[in-house]
Design goal:
There is one protein chain. The protein is 77% helix and 0% strand. With 69 residues, the chain is mainly α. The chain is elongated, with a radius of gyration of 15 Å.
Length: 69
């Protein structure tokens, strides 16, 4: 187990949460761009879709545990 204080753990969590939100927004924006170009079947589109779903699931878990409103 690491020796982080509760305050450091909270800061790390908040930082991770912001990163997850930003990455989800990025994946969605990239997916939207590719969709507008008619590239829904591309590997890149599928990767961004997969990433978006992963981040979406992470955020829903945070919500389930009362860590996100």
């Amino acid at each position: 187990m690491n020796n982080m204080s509760d305050e450091d753990r909270l800061k790390a969590f908040e930082s991770m949460l912001e990163d997850v939100k930003n990455q989800m927004e990025f994946a969605q924006a990239e997916r939207d761009k590719l969709k507008a170009q008619g590239r829904e079947k591309s590997v890149t589109f599928k990767q961004h879709m997969s990433n978006k779903l992963m981040y979406q699931r992470m955020l829903s878990m945070y919500k389930e545990y009362g860590l996100l409103s």
